[in-house]
Amino acid sequence: xxxxxxxxxxxxxxxxxxxxxxxxxxxxxxxxxxxxxxxxxxxxxxxxxxxxxxxxxxxxxxxxxxxxxxxxxxxxxxxxxxxxxxxxxxxxxxxxxxxxxxxxxxxxxxxxxxxxxxxxxxxxxxxxxxxxxxxxxxxxxxxxxxxxxxxxxxxxxxxxxxxxxxxxxxxxxxxxxxxxxxxxxxxxxxxxxxxxxxxxxxxxxxxxxxxxxxxxxxxxxxxxxxxxxxxxxxxxxxxxxxxxxxxxxxxxxxxxxxxxxxxxxxxxxxxxxxxxxxxxxxxxxxxxxxxxxxxxxxxxxxxxxxxxxxxxxxxxxxxxxxxxxxxxxxxxxxxxxxxxxxxxxxxxxxxxxxxxxxxxxxxxxxxxxxxxxxxxxxxxxxxxxxxxxxxxxxxxxxxxxxxxxxxxxxxxxxxxxxxxxxxxxxxxxxxxxxxxxxxxxxxxxxxxxxxxxxxxxxxxxxx
Length: 463
Known about the structure:
Blueprint: H1 3-6, H2 20-50, H3 57-82, H4 84-103, H5 108-136, H6 142-154, H7 160-170, H8 174-197, H9 214-230, H10 238-256, H11 271-299, H12 304-307, H13 309-328, H14 334-358, H15 362-389, H16 396-424, H17 431-451
Helix pairs in contact: 2-5, 2-6, 2-7, 2-8, 3-4, 3-5, 3-9, 3-16, 4-5, 4-8, 5-16, 6-13, 6-15, 9-10, 9-16, 11-14, 11-15, 11-16, 11-17, 13-15, 14-15, 14-17, 15-16, 16-17
């Protein structure tokens, strides 16, 4: 039995006296990562112009995703081996160092190096927090905690895009990242007391210590290298690009197999399908989240602040849906909630395709992306809740990292494909480029809809 399972404070709730500071601190850490992610989406058109890095636009997003694969695998292994305390602390240091490098970057090369550091830290800290949930909170509170995580991930979207845009327009984009770094210090202090109380090592102190899995770590490095290679194709000649594409795809396919549960790529029911779905819906969402502001800036003349309106409304609906699904509890089955969410994501991505293709009024894509945000909020917490529920104590680090690895790998592949499409089809000046980018997301959402029926094994309880 885990420490959390034996805890008698469940009746106090996640905001009760025993959990209040920890819950706020953990959610705030998620919120900082979310703000940084939204800020990059909002300010990247300006950054790429000022640092002369338009050809590396997609790599600015893919670089942290690539390094996060390594961070997630190391963090999952380390958490199973030594507990989440040291994982959270060390990965936050890497995340903060990345913010500092990005915030002071004088060139696109330095900016990208900082993004790699950020990814290494953010990927690891999320895994550490997931494992921390299983150690600190009893299972009855897990849905509420993950609903809080989901809300914390999107609440910055209420003001984040506008704030990032205004800061960029007034004092410069550098302070968007430096401000996030300053905010990390008091937030980490909030979770420090709970981290200090956690015992190091596995939950069962009599169990043998989990060894370092150097093979998985090596494969994660290979997967990260493949992701970076795919996103550098715009810098290579056509002949070399063809060779790199084949080599990178093969390497990525082999590298991911030991990093996710057996049966993930054939959509085996239960945790393997949950891991696969997390990647597919996240990839679909990323295709729109990254390129809708770019579309608005390049083809509709929006300012940096105004171009983030879809991110804001999508975040509002995500937070609302996350709250609703937490309140509904077992009144909506997990399978129905997941499938409904996938359908809503597909609706929003198709609205983006139609807007770019027919140059429709921006309201079409804004409404569509609000629906997509609601779909993500309605299903996203379910992935984590079900994965923890169906994982043994010594699997939670691996399976939690698998969820985030699937998400990062899928996002990176989507960004590579959309980056290729943007370069081949005429860049930001061509509406066809954006149509192709959003079509990639639509394809991911369609596959997710097909496999979603296997997310919950037959005969599993409704709750």
